[in-house]
Amino acid sequence: MDESSGVGVLDKAVLVLAALETGPASLAGLVQMTGLARPTAHRLARALEHHRFVARDLQGRFVLGPRLSELAAAAGEDRLLAASGPILARLRDITGESAQLYRRQAGSRVCAAAAERPTGLRDTIPVGSVLSMDAGSAAQILLAWEDTDKIRRGLSNSAFSAVTLAAVRKRGWAQSVGERETGVASVSAPVRSPSGKVIAAVSVSGPIERLTRQPGRIHAPAVVAAGGRLSEVLRRSAQ
C-alpha cells in the first residue's frame, strides 16, 4: 500500500519520527532505518530538533522531543495530563516537596507535568525536560516492569541494579538518593493504564536534608496513593 501523502518533505519527516519511536538513534542509524540519504536525514533531524519534535540524549543521539507531548495535551485528548494537575498539586501540598509526572520517551524520560514547591529550597524540573533513564527513582519505575530484554539493556549504564528493580516491583515504589543529581532525593510510584501497563511515574523530589537518605519511609504512601488515583482516572475514562 502506498503510504505517501504526496508531500515529500512531510513524508520524510514522518519517517524520521517513526524511526525514533523505537529508541535513540545516531545519524547513521537514522539513515539505515529510513533509507534516506545521509544529508537529507541530517537536515530533517536538525529541523525537527529546532522545533522540539526531536531532541538529543546524553550521548548525542536523536530521540523524540517534548513538543509531541505538548501537542497531545493541547489537543485535549490526554486524560492523564488533564488529571495530573490537581493530583500533583495535592501531592505537593501533602509532602511539602515538588511533584512531577514522568513518561518514557524512547531511551529517555520526559517531565510531562509538575507542581513546584512555592518557596524554599526545591528540586525544579521544568515541564518538557528530557532526563536520562540511567538514574533516579522515576527511571527505576519506568524500567522495572519492562520485559527482560529492555531491562537488561536499560541496566547497562544505569546507577541502579537488577536487585534494585526487583525490590521496586515487590514494594511498588522506588527511591533514589543523589542518583540523578548530588544532594537530591526522590520517591516515585507507577501510573498504570487500564490494561495494567506502567505508562508513567509520579514523583516527589527535594534536598536530601529534608527527604533524608530513606525518603520512601516518609513519602512512599502519599506517592503511591497519587499514582493509584491517576491510574483510577484512566480506568474510569476507559469504561
TrEMBL record:
Q: Which domain of life is it from?
A: Bacteria
For this UniProt record, give its keywords in alphabetical order, as a comma-separated list.
Answer: DNA-binding, Transcription, Transcription regulation
User: What GO terms are given for molecular function?
Assistant: DNA binding; DNA-binding transcription factor activity
A Pfam family cross-referenced in the UniProt record is: HTH_IclR
HTH iclR-type domain: which residues?
7-66
Domain spans labelled IclR-ED: 67-236
* GO biological process, any: negative regulation of DNA-templated transcription
The leader peptide range reads none
**Record keywords: Cell membrane included?**
no
- SUPFAM superfamilies (alphabetical): GAF domain-like, Winged helix' DNA-binding domain
- Name the UniProt record assigns to this protein: IclR family transcriptional regulator
- Organism equals Cutibacterium porci
